[in-house]
Amino acid sequence: MALLAGLVLGLSGCGMVKGMLRPVPAAAAPQSPMATLGEGVTAAALDTTTAAERTEALDAAPESGERMLGTVSAALGSPTEPGFWIKTKLVAVAAKGRVETADGKSVAVDLLPSDGAAILSFAAFRALELALTDLPDVSVYAN
Asked: Quick one: the chain helix, strand, coil %, rounded to 5?
């Protein structure tokens, strides 16, 4: 104990300790998660889908015979994987379908099998106007 106290007192005049005791600057005001990503890159700049693709995906009406597979909490997928899709344990093979948010917005997606948590594509998040930091609950339907 005496050794520790001596070490602390001995280093108290040292620049290293003074540097470690500097106050941490206050964080900047938080921005909208849809505003910018990293070095000023906007979410819109990362979305490689066309306006026509977004319109088609958003205009897809529920098909007759579609069935609800379940509801999942979906994490954001990688912006490097283009298209409208959801990876989920609810399907064993790839299929066509759609996801619907709690407020009724829906988008047509490719249903892709996954062993892990549900992941919704970047384009689908944007089309559904979800905050990129959310873990929304979405209902998954198969055509």
From this structure: 25, 30, 45
